[in-house]
Amino acid sequence: MTQNTYIQSYITIQNNEIVLNGTSVFKIEPTDFADFSKQAYRNFDIQYPKFFKMDALSKLAFLGSELLLSPIISAEKENNIALVLANKSSSLDTDVKYQESISDKENYFPSPAVFVYTLPNICLGEISIRHQLKSENSFFIFEAFNPEFMSNYSNILLNSNKAETVLCGWVEFFNDNYKAFLCTISKEENEKYKNETINTLYNK
Amino acid sequence: MEALKEELKNKIITTLNLEDIAIEDIADNDPLFGDGLGLDSIDALELIVILDKDYGIKLVDPKEGKTIFQSIESMAAYISANRTK
Fold first, then answer.
1. What superkingdom heads the lineage (chain A) (predicted)?
2. ipTM of the predicted assembly exceeds 0.90
3. Which helix (H) or strand (E) covers residue A92, if one does?
């Protein structure tokens, strides 16, 4: 039997601002993403030095997931939280940086630390490592955010008991233009967003 | 040798994005991996790139890295003895 699923929480990161469940929780004067992400990390007092080694896409996904998952992660039991993310530009931002670093044959020193981020699903790995998740995860590339797909995919995972909670959404980063929209969905009743859909929250 | 050690500490902090670590936090004999600076396997590969790019040293046998990258002291000694630039 198909059970109803409910949006539990959501977050949007764009234009130097982080909005959590409709409330602005961090906003600074216009700056580049490197500076914005560092200030956000400091602001939320996150203790995870590996953050600084991540590429921009992973930092973006990490910041969003950190604020959504930290309150619900349990240290006592395994957390069956599936991750389903998508974007338009894949890991192109890092791919371009990496390509530039190997374009000169006379100065050919490919960076292993950059190379490891030349796949978009690495950000799922970073979130999984951070929260010790051994659950389902998938990363999709779409021309634009596809809320229907996200909703259907999340419902299948929840109704087939592949996951107790799904963190799904959009994490797009290219040339310092970025937007992240992430939400958590589960079968736990929650009336707070009963009149909302992933699409309406994404467009707020 | 002291200047080289300082230079290496700077390079490691910058290249490996050790955001919360200052030069003064790294003692010459601190282990770079494990309980010391806590570097990982990707960092080890970046150190091999630093040797090649900045000092003209190509590590033929990556196993050598275990001894060379024990500490700033061991790195500096190896670079001093083998550098080509």
1. Bacteria
2. no
3. helix A92-101
